[in-house]
Amino acid sequence: FTQYATAAYTDNILDDYCYYGLDYIKSKHGGLGKAKKTQEVLSDIATEVTLYGMEQYEQFPTTLESHFGGSQRASVLAAASGISCALATANSNAGLNGWYMSMLAHKEGWSRLGFFGYDLQDQCGSTNSMSIRPDE
Prior knowledge:
By secondary structure, this protein is mainly alpha-helical. It has helices at residues 2-6, 13-29, 39-59, 61-66, 70-89, 92-110, 120-123. It is globular, with a radius of gyration of 14 Å.
């Protein structure tokens, strides 16, 4: 439900985070599709976009009310980070790594992603994103 509802029910906030990521890519990495496909670059972009989003949630508490539950906030931040990483490198796998990097940074910053401990689904893919297993 969270991933389905995120795009429709997040009040242009996801758009704002994505545009921030786009501006960051243009200023620091030279534009769309021009960033190197390295973990260092992906970590930089995903962390920057995630921290921006977390700061916005803290600065404007009504967004916390609009995005009910930690899972929705985690998905919005991760989607913006993943989209930004994919746009920066022109690589969908880089976007997936940006998604999971955002989940880890978010959990590090706020100690949890969802409520009632339902955050396993938001973390379980990062160990497989650099593996050959999904390709088999």
